[in-house]
Amino acid sequence: MEAGRLETQGGIATLQNIDKFPESHRQNIIDKLNKKQALVDYNFEEGYHELMIFYHEDAGDISIEIQKPTTIEHLRELLHLANYVGAKLMIMEEDIVIDDSIIEDLE
Length: 107
What we know:
Blueprint: H1 9-16, H2 23-33, E1 37-43, E2 48-56, E3 61-66, H3 72-84, E4 89-91, E5 96-98, H4 100-106
Antiparallel strand pairs: 1-2, 2-3, 4-5
């Protein structure tokens, strides 16, 4: 086990049985086990997660899908996460990189 890596019994069992899953789903399963995806705040009424975070190691970025209003505090936390993994926090539709100066301008 790598330093800083936590393996659960469920994760170990899934990896031991990875060949039982369709090949087209295996990489997605491995990515979930590698914690490259986080789902937050499940909306039971609507049936979806209000915040989804994906880490794309090969591209060095984090993509975030937000279904609820975003606060400056959310942006600070997401920027901290991006900085921690050496990634960029961007608004893709606008091609804007979010950094400390952008957050300060919003305050």
